[in-house]
Known about the structure:
Layout: H1 8-23, H2 28-33, H3 40-52, H4 54-64, H5 71-85, H6 93-105, H7 114-134, H8 138-142, H9 146-155, H10 160-167, E1 174-177, H11 184-193, E2 198-201, E3 205-208, E4 225-227, H12 235-240, E5 250-254, H13 261-269, E6 272-278, H14 281-294, E7 299-302, E8 317-323, H15 338-341, H16 344-361, E9 365-375, H17 384-393, E10 397-407, E11 411-412, E12 428-435
Amino acid sequence: MTHSAPDLWQLLQASAEVLAQVRAGRSTTALFDALDPTLRPGVQALSLQVLRSLGRALALRRQLASRQPPAASDALLCTALALLVADPAPYPPHTLVTQAVEAAKRNRATQAHASFINACLRRLLREREQLLAAVQEPQARWNHPNWWIERLAQDHPAHWQAVLTSGDKPAALVLRVNARRVSREHCLSVWSEAGIAAEPVGDNGLRLLRSQTVVSLPGYAQGWFSVQDAAAQRAAPLLLQGLVPAGQRLRLLDACAAPGGKTAHLLERTEADVLALDIDADRIGRIKDNLGRLGLSAQVELADAAEPAQWWDGRLFDGVLLDAPCTASGIVRRHPDVRWLRRPDDVAELAAQQARLLQALWPLVRPGGRLLYCTCSVFKAEGQDQVQAFLARHRQAQLLPSPGHLLPGIGSVDARLPDNPEGEHDGFFYALLQRG
Ligand SMILES: C[S@@+](CC[C@H](N)C(=O)[O-])C[C@H]1O[C@@H](n2cnc3c(N)ncnc32)[C@H](O)[C@@H]1O
C-alpha cells in the first residue's frame, strides 16, 4: 500500500496538537511515538522547531491577541507564529499562513477561530520588524522560561548566554562504537562506502555529519554502536580508569540504569559483574533489549536504588555509577520540550531525590572503591552544590579529579571536553568520589 505525502496543513494540525499536549504536561517522546507513521517525520521536525521558538511565539501572541483563544486555537496560532519566526524558516511565510488557516478551518475545535488566526498571522507578516522589536523580555529573547534563565545566569554568570544559545540549536547524532564488536575505523570505512559521512569524537564516538535514522545505519542490528551523546560517553571511562577489583572480578552497580546506555558502555570496556537497577518497570525491558543487541550481559533488576535493604546481598561494590534522575536541563538541544515541561519547584524536588540516592548508595562502596555521581543537568543544585553538600556530610569521601559541569556551547567549566573544543555536546555534571 502506498501513502501519499501529507499536506502541510495536516502537519500543522498535528504539530499544534503536540504543542497543546506539551502545554498540558506531556513529553514529546511519547507523543511522537503515538503519531501516524506518515505524519511522524514531518510533525517531529516542525514540533522541535516550534518548541525552540515558543518563547518568542508566546510573546508575539500576547501582542497580537488581547485575549488568549481557547487551547486548541491558541496552540495552532502559536505553532504558526513560532514557525514564522524560526531561523531558518521551514516554509515561505505566505505558505505557512495559508496552510495554518486551512488547518484551522478543517478542525472542529479551531474552525470558529480561523479568521482570527488569519488576521493575527497576516499582521505579523505586515509588521514583523516592529512586532519583533517589541518582544524583548528574556523568555522571548532566549526561548526558555524566565525562571530557567534566572537560575542559569546565577549558576554560570560567565556562560549562561552560550548555554541558552546552544540549547536552541539542533544536535548532531552521536554514536558510541561497541569496541567488543568492531573498531571505530572499520565502522567508518563501511559507512564511507555506503556514502555515510561521520567524524570521530572522544575516545570511541562518531558524530554523523548528516542526519539519518539510526536503525538504517549499517551495523545497527549487529550491535556495532549505540546512540549516546559525547558528554554521556565520559561516564564509563571516568568510573573505570584506575579502578581495580578487590576480588577476582570487578563488581559494579549501575543504580539508575534504564535504558542501559552507560551499563552497556561499562561492559564494552571491561570484564565485570554488573548489577543494573531501575525503578521504572516500563523502562527496564529496554536495558535487556539494548544489552541483547550489543551482545552484553548484566544482572538487571527492577528496584528502588534508594532502598538497598530490599535488593542488596551485602557484598560491597568496587564501583557505583549513580546517573541520577534530574531535570534533564542539559539535553534541551535534543528535547526542547523539557524546558517548557519543568516547573521551578522540580529542581529542589529532584535535588532531594539525588541526595537520598547518594546517601543510600555510598555505604555500598568498598573502602578504596569509587562512586561516580552524574546528572544531565546544567543546574548547580543538581551538580556542584549537591556534591559539596555530600562532601560536607561525609568526611571520608574524597573528590577525585572530575570534569564538574560540562556546559553545552562552552565545554567544561573546569577543563574542556577533549575533541569537543566547541562544546558541541549535551550538558552534564560529573563528580568521581573515592571512599577512604
Ligand atoms: C538519567 S536516567 C538513566 C540513564 C541511563 N543511566 C543510561 O545511560 O541509559 C535516570 C533513571 O533513573 C531511574 N530512577 C529514578 N529513581 C530511581 C530510583 N530510586 N531507583 C532506581 N532507579 C531510579 C529512572 O527510571 C531513569 O531511568
